[in-house]
Amino acid sequence: MQTLEFSFLIGVGAAFIGNGRASTCNGANFAYRKDTFYEVGGFTGIDELASGDDELLLQKVAERFPGKIGFLKFRDAIVYTHAKYNLKEFLQQRRRWASKSTKYKDKKVIAVAIFMWMFNMTMLVNVALGFLISPSLRSFFSSSG
C-alpha cells in the first residue's frame, strides 16, 4: 500500500512539473545545481522544520525559476527507500510531512495535499468497510435491488 501511495505522490509531482509548475518532490530523488541552491538562499527560512526541506526548497526554486524544473524519468537514476515498518511509523511520517504545509506559498499545492489526504482516507475507509460488511450483509444488499 505504501508503494502504491508513494507512486501516486511521484505521479502528482511529475504531472505538476509537466504542466510547468512544481508541487512535490522526494529528497532521495531530488537533484539541483549548487549555484541554484545558493541563489535561492538554500535552506534559509525553511530550516526550522523537522521535515519538508526538500519540498520547500523546490518551492523556492520554482518561484525563482518558473518553468525551469524538470522530471527525470530514467530507471538508473531512481533511489530506493524502505517503507515504514508499521502503521504508527507511517502515520508519524505523514504527520511530519503535513506539518510543512503552512509554509507553502502556492495555494494550489495545499489544495493538492488536501486532495491526497482525502484520497488516502477514502482508501482506508473502503478497506475498513470491506472487512466490516459481512458476506451475508453483502448478499442482502446485492439481492435487494
Which features would summarize this protein structure in a list?
mainly alpha
Beta-strand content estimate: under 5%
Alpha plus pi helix count: 6
Task: Calculate the terminal CA-CA distance, rounded to whole Å.
Answer: 33 Å
Return the string of H and E elements: HHHHHH
Overall strand count: 0
- Helix and strand composition category: mainly alpha
Helix content: 55-70%
Regions with pLDDT < 50 over 5+ consecutive residues? Answer: none
Question: Could you describe the 3D structure shown?
Answer:
By secondary structure, the chain is mainly α. It is built from six helices and no strands. It is elongated and about 65 Å long.
Sequence-ordered SSE layout with sheet pairings:
Blueprint (H helix, E strand, L loop, with lengths): L1 H17 L15 H6 L13 H12 L22 H12 L8 H26 L2 H9 L2
